[in-house]
Amino acid sequence: MDFSFTEEQQMLKASVRNFLEKEIAPVVDEHEKSGPLTKAETVAFIKQLLPFGYLTGFLPEKYGGSQLEAKTNGILVEDLSRVWASLAGTIVIAAGFLWGLSEAGSQDQKQKLLPLGTSGEYIGCLAITEPNAGSDVSSLETTANLDGDNYIINGTKMWISNGSIADAAFVLATTDKSLGPLGLSFFLVERNTSPFQARELHKLGMRCFPTAELSFDDCKVPKTNLLDPGAGYKRTMAFFDVSRAMVGAMCTGIAQAAIDASIKYAQDRTQFGQPIGSFQMIQEMLVDMVAETEAGRLLSFRALDLIDKGQKSRWQSSLAKSYATEAAVRTTSKAIQIHGAMGLSDEYPVERYFRDARTMTIPEGTTQIQKLIVGRDILGIRAFLV
Ligand SMILES: Cc1cc2nc3c(=O)[nH]c(=O)nc-3n(C[C@H](O)[C@H](O)[C@H](O)COP(=O)(O)OP(=O)(O)OC[C@H]3O[C@@H](n4cnc5c(N)ncnc54)[C@H](O)[C@@H]3O)c2cc1C
Fold first, then answer.
1. Mean pLDDT of 220-238
2. Judgement on whether residues 180 and 142 belong to the same structural domain of the protein
3. Which residue from 62, 81, 63 is spatially nearest to 73, judged by alpha carbons?
4. Is residue 334 part of a domain?
5. Relative orientation angle of helices 350-359 and 314-338, to the nearest 10 degrees
6. Is the CB of 384 under 6 A from ligand 1?
7. How far, in Å, is the centroid of ligand 1 from the Cα of 375?
8. Does the pLDDT at position 2 exceed 90?
């Protein structure tokens, strides 16, 4: 099994890391203390990062994308998450929207929206989760009823990343409840012509990453905005196969930041007349942090490598997501321990790394759901029907 990085990928990693350290890292703390980024702030950051392939990395060149390997996208997201996981979250979701549009949009929709999207000025979101439908996507209640040349969408979506700043949403809704998951379809809802309400939701970590409740009250959408009828559930699962591996890479980046900060602190901080890094129990914590982070990285990039090879990556992506997110929680918690009381203070970044890592065990399917996916594929026995 060889998925080592090419020389080009190593050079990209070095140049992106250098840029992020110089241009982005100095402003992160200030933003994280003031909450979700505004649309204008988000666009400004995205424009700085576009030349490296952020946002458009999964998009084919014919649509103005940079068409990078999945592994290269993983490198980009790991390094951005090492500096600022919130911004990485926003970009992963916005990129997912553009990719979805390129896969399922009509010619007209692609022609109109992809140039705006690739400029970084048009931000999308994916609205699946609802108040009564979280892990069980198939039970969602949002309806879309045909009325002449339009669909009328009614329902509430919860925890929608980028929701408050989004120009458009892919909304998963049922056109026929009796069909169960086969009645689910995505609708392209453009906010300027089909307005919907957004209420920002405060959360423990990833504080600059907007997450909102979206309300669709008789929201009128042209019937041409129904994408790939009946394929909504299948498309959601196909998206997760990629996004879960990317979340694994994100959490590897957060954990790496915690390791880097802890090594520095263990070298600088002295107690009993010697650096705390000389104590064996501190060294043991650091070695455990490195081991778990390396394992999460290998699982994530193995899944991304399968995607590059056009092979199935379902359980491998789920394993990467569940392992790397939970490992990042343990690693960032140890980073706090190594920093002592300072680890709890917002004068040091490790409390943010912990909050951010802790936040990521829930989206894109919880740890428990990922384990049930792996269990299903290795046992051939389903814990639930869909
Ligand atoms: C930061 C963040 C960003 C998000 N972004 C988006 C987004 O962009 N778009 C979107 O649509 N959604 C988004 N979500 C929502 C996310 O996908 C859901 O929160 C997630 O799927 C879990 O659903 P839930 O919160 O309703 O928990 P529930 O499904 O109610 O689960 C509660 C608990 O029960 C457990 N559980 C449930 N079923 C089982 C089972 N069969 N076996 C064992 N345990 C089980 C879960 O693991 C969990 O521990 C986001 C969430 C967060 C936190």
1. 94
2. yes
3. 81
4. yes
5. 150
6. yes
7. 18
8. no
